[in-house]
């Protein structure tokens, strides 16, 4: 859909922490752009000619923390699926806290959510903490405060935030303005002001089809970054996903623009946008299934294998064109702090090392989670920053905007499997398996795989197991037969043998990413 109302950064936000810059602007093309080479789909980690992958570009401590979150994200999504399936009730928020998942809830936990928590605890520790207010109560109170905050763009207040822990509301004020703070109405909900800088909008070089995320794009000179190649699952039409503020609908987008001849390679035209959410689709018949993750002049790319919901506490990376030129790799250690809960629906994060989270020209660039094998999951596209403060639009919202779009992947599929070895010893291991459904709701499921060696299942939970030789089939129990669209289901097992990740996985006969 396309909306024309112009959103401002003065907004109602849902979350725990933060502050904001709009990342657009003409870029200077490097004098020696690396030639683009066709990249064959591979089940192995994509690397540059020197053997580097995304895993080599992230500082080891940050990388290890990101990869250790995989079971936490899976567990949070199991709980989130149950929460989304029912009415809001006492739900306040969910987040990743240190080495566990925390669910904040007001009142007694309903049976369906309690069952989901019990299931998720097989994958990762899940803590349930009482909340002072539910998300519904916070939204109602914020709706009274937001018009006052938005009334005068010259005053110091610029955002209203719902705390993920359900403890109350925060009103962000910009310390640089020195303007008055508005008098806020009484709501019966605990409200406090926090000092946060306003974020402003932010806006690679010469690629060829298929067009991957992370490339520098513009109407003429480079102004923004492509986020991800995507396809509409229903129509199979291809696009590049980027930021709406980069340019108008109907205009041509190019790579490899030559300022001497005023010519470049046409990618396609802006065909749809959402002004409120700052997303845009650029038409292309060749959306790529990788993103550039290295510098501006190298071929280090990572394969995209799907997309992920983003959860407060989750650590992500961004690979904008300008940042790639300045630091030679991705900006990582971006901790998700909260989701906006207004017309913009943005997500805010913080670069935990205090570094610049994004730069002019990064707008629209890919924001992503990193998998242990060096592949990545689409999390969103860059919109704003202010120092370490970072604002992006999550991929789930882009799906809501444009229908059933999905990242272009080497394997077009409606399902994704997260397989995590949670423990191992000399003679065996434990594994947690989470199945994500991108297609129509599933009622009754069967997941199959083949072990690469002599591994044998000894114990299991949340599924009916059958193993013949190396082949394993798991079908649903009566209580977890349904997997809603955008939902997830999990199970696990104990096995003898060396830890190993089998492939491929098939869900009801469909091969999954």
Automatic annotation (TrEMBL):
Pfam families: CBM_2. This is Cellulose binding domain-containing protein. GO terms for molecular function: hydrolase activity, hydrolyzing O-glycosyl compounds; polysaccharide binding. GO terms for biological process: carbohydrate metabolic process. Residues 1-33 form the signal peptide. Keywords: Signal. Residues 30-50 are annotated as: Disordered. It comes from Micromonospora rifamycinica. InterPro entries: CBD2 (IPR001919), CBM2/CBM3_carb-bd_dom_sf (IPR008965), CBM2_carb-bd_dom_sf (IPR012291), Peptidase_S1_PA (IPR009003), Peptidase_S1_PA_chymotrypsin (IPR043504), TRYPSIN_SER (IPR033116).
């Amino acid at each position: 859909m396309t909306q024309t109302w112009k959103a401002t950064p003065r907004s109602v936000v849902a979350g725990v922490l933060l502050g904001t810059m709009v990342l657009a602007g003409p870029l200077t093309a490097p004098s020696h752009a690396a030639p683009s080479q066709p990249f064959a789909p591979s089940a192995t980690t994509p690397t540059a000619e020197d053997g580097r992958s995304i895993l080599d570009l992230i500082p080891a401590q940050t990388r290890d923390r990101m990869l250790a979150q995989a079971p936490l994200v899976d567990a949070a999504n199991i709980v989130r699926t149950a929460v989304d399936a029912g009415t809001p009730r006492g739900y306040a928020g969910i987040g990743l806290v240190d080495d566990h998942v925390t669910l904040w809830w007001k009142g007694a936990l309903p049976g369906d959510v309690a069952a989901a928590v019990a299931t998720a605890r097989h994958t990762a520790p899940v803590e349930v903490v009482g909340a002072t207010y539910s998300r519904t109560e916070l939204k109602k109170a914020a709706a009274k405060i937001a018009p006052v905050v938005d009334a005068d763009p010259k005053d110091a207040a610029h955002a209203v935030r719902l705390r993920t822990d359900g403890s109350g509301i925060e009103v962000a004020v910009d310390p640089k303005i020195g303007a008055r703070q508005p008098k806020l109405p009484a709501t019966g909900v605990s409200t406090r002001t926090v000092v946060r800088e306003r974020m402003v909008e932010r806006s690679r070089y010469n690629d060829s089809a298929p067009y991957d995320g992370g490339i520098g794009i513009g109407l003429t000179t480079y102004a923004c970054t492509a986020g991800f190649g995507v396809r509409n699952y229903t129509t199979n039409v291809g696009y590049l996903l980027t930021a709406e503020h980069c340019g108008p609908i109907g205009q041509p987008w190019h790579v490899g623009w030559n300022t001497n001849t005023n010519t470049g390679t046409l990618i396609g035209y802006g065909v749809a946008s959402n002004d409120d959410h700052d997303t845009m689709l650029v038409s292309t018949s060749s959306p790529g299934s990788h993103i550039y993750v290295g510098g501006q002049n190298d071929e280090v790319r990572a394969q995209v294998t799907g997309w992920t919901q983003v959860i407060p506490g989750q650590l992500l990376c961004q690979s904008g064109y300008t940042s790639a030129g300045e630091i030679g790799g991705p900006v990582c250690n971006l901790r998700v702090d909260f989701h906006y809960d207004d017309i913009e629906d943005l997500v805010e994060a913080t670069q935990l090392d205090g570094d610049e989270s994004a730069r002019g020209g990064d707008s629209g660039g890919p924001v992503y989670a990193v998998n242990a094998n060096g592949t990545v999951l689409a999390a969103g596209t860059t919109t704003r920053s202010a120092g370490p403060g970072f604002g992006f639009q999550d991929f789930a919202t882009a799906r809501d905007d444009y229908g059933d779009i999905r990242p272009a992947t080497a394997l077009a599929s409606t399902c994704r499997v997260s397989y995590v070895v949670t423990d191992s010893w000399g003679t065996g291991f434990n594994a947690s398996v989470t199945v994500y459904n991108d297609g129509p709701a599933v009622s009754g499921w069967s997941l199959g795989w083949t072990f690469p060696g002599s591994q044998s299942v000894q114990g299991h939970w949340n599924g009916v197991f059958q193993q013949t030789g190396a082949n394993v089939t798991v079908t649903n129990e009566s209580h977890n037969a349904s997997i809603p669209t955008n939902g997830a289901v999990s199970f696990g097992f104990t096995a003898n043998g060396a830890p190993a990740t089998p492939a491929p996985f098939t869900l009801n006969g469909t091969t999954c990413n």
